Amino acid sequence: MRARLSLTAGALAAALSLVTAAAAAGPGSAPDHARNDLPSDLRRDPGSTPGSGPDLRAERGPAHTSDGQPGLLAPVLPRLLRQGAATSTDPVRSTVSPGVTLTRWDEADPRGAQRFSLLTVDPSVPGVSLDYAGPRRVSGTATLPTLLSPAYNGPGTVAGVNGDFFDIGDTGAPLGTGRDVERGVLHARLSGWTSSFAVDRQGRPWIGEVPLRASVKQRPGLRITNLNSPFVEPGGIGIYTAAWGTTSGYRVTSGQKRGVRMVLVRGGKVVRTRAKLPSGQPIRGVLLVGRGPGAKALGTLRKGARLDVTWGLQGGPRMAISGNKVLIREGLVEVVDDRVMHPRTAIGIDRDTGEVLVLVVDGRWTWSRGATMVELAATMADLGADEALNLDGGGSTTMITRGADGRLGVVNAPSDGSLRKVANGLQVRYRPPGG
Q1: In 78-115, which positions are buried (b, 16+ CB within 10 angstroms) versus exposed (e)?
Q2: Distance of alpha carbon 307 from alpha carbon 266, whole angstroms
Q3: Which residues contact 348 (CB under 8 A, 6 or more apart)?
Q4: Contacts of 259 (CB under 8 A, 6+ apart)
Q5: 262-295 residue pLDDT tens
Q6: Planar angle of CA 70, 233, 139, nearest 5 degrees
């Protein structure tokens, strides 16, 4: 945990009052919650309302990518002053399972109070594993407890957090890359939204770019840009499979109706080609959707033509899930925004220990203001992360762990005041060796 030094008695007193107010809800309480319950912190603080920040009169910044909520702008204060006047409660640690630990603490500086929840996961411990947790179809959403339930993603879940940014106002599908250990590659893009957390075939975690690699054997010139994405890149060609769900019509072409085409491939042959996009129909086979030049290229295919469509991910990871920005790369902070505060979720890797660090920062509450991107990266670096990635935040920020009674419960305070339905999550499993 970070060491702090005081600069001025006045600044320290102000920070102490903030951290005392934040600590009133008690990060160490972390009771065992029934599935889908909100943490007692929310119920115990009736004076707070969803979306309330440290100062409702504060200047508003840009909206969060997924939920469109504007973030409060943090006061411009020298970093040395903020660090010197910062205070922290003693961390409260609990063992979730062998190899998985939960740590909670509060901090405060002249910008306001913050609450942190940290999962430390050691993938080298026998029985511990990380996986993608998603709904039954890519174009669907569910609350994190539902996604982590045995009915959706198998037994053995001991913890998890929300994952990728997603198309919250339309299809609900995630924006980036997703690979499940059991189900394989579910969604991906050739470019954009490819920054991901992944685990390789040897079980080693890494953070980097994980783009789609797709091709058509008989037509190597076809440019495949998307797999089960909320929309096809302009000029590109998207692949849609049964994992997507039912066809979404012109929603996947961003409303574009001219210069589009669909080609349905089944059993390695073209069985249908049309200039109109169907909606609400089951996908039986591989559906190719083109826009502009992509549609023109698809228009040269004829019914009955042989077509072998293949896809995978660069680097061949065993599992992968995207975020939007790399926070830390090879020990260096890569983000620059130190003004806009939101609830945040991040994942990082400590190369010295091999541990995976999963952090959530509560925000939009009077007792926890959220964090800027620079603050998030700095916290991850202080915790030991050599690489770190920003996952979806805002009202999506949710962390769940298994309690002493064996049930999964929420340990942070989602800013909506209720559990948001999200596109996917990161699943932490523990299965006793030989069990």
Answers
A1: eeeebebbbbbbeeeeeebbebbbbbbbbbbbbbbbbb
A2: 9
A3: 207, 327, 328, 356, 357, 358, 359, 380, 383, 384, 385, 386, 387, 388, 389
A4: 291, 292, 295, 296
A5: 999 999 999 999 999 999 999 999 999 999 999 9
A6: 65
